[in-house]
């Protein structure tokens, strides 16, 4: 099984290569996401960020069309 390279290539529940969903068993965070390429972590699901960005780009395109 080969992981998708980008968010654009992912299905609804997939994370692309280099991303990992982690459960924080010792803290209060619950779930967080690790971007191994940039060596960063974040609480917000990056798939939600990706969908928001796609919606923004579509709105911008439609406004200018």
Automatic annotation (TrEMBL):
Sorted alphabetically, the keyword list is:
Repeat
- Does the record's keyword annotation contain Repressor? no
Query: From which residue to which does the signal peptide run?
Result: none
Q: Which InterPro entries match?
A: WW_dom, WW_dom_sf
Can you give the residue ranges of the WW domain? Answer: 13-48
Cited PANTHER family: LD27118P (PTHR10316:SF40), MEMBRANE ASSOCIATED GUANYLATE KINASE-RELATED (PTHR10316)
Q: What is this protein called?
A: WW domain-containing protein
Species the sequence originates in: Helobdella robusta
Q: Which gene encodes it?
A: 20196062
């Amino acid at each position: 099984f080969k992981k998708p390279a980008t968010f654009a290539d992912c299905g609804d529940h997939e994370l692309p290569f280099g991303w990992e969903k982690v459960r924080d068993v010792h803290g209060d965070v619950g779930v967080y996401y690790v971007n191994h390429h940039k060596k960063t972590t974040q609480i917000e699901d990056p798939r939600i960020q990706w969908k928001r960005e796609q919606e923004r780009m579509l709105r911008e395109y439609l406004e200018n069309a």
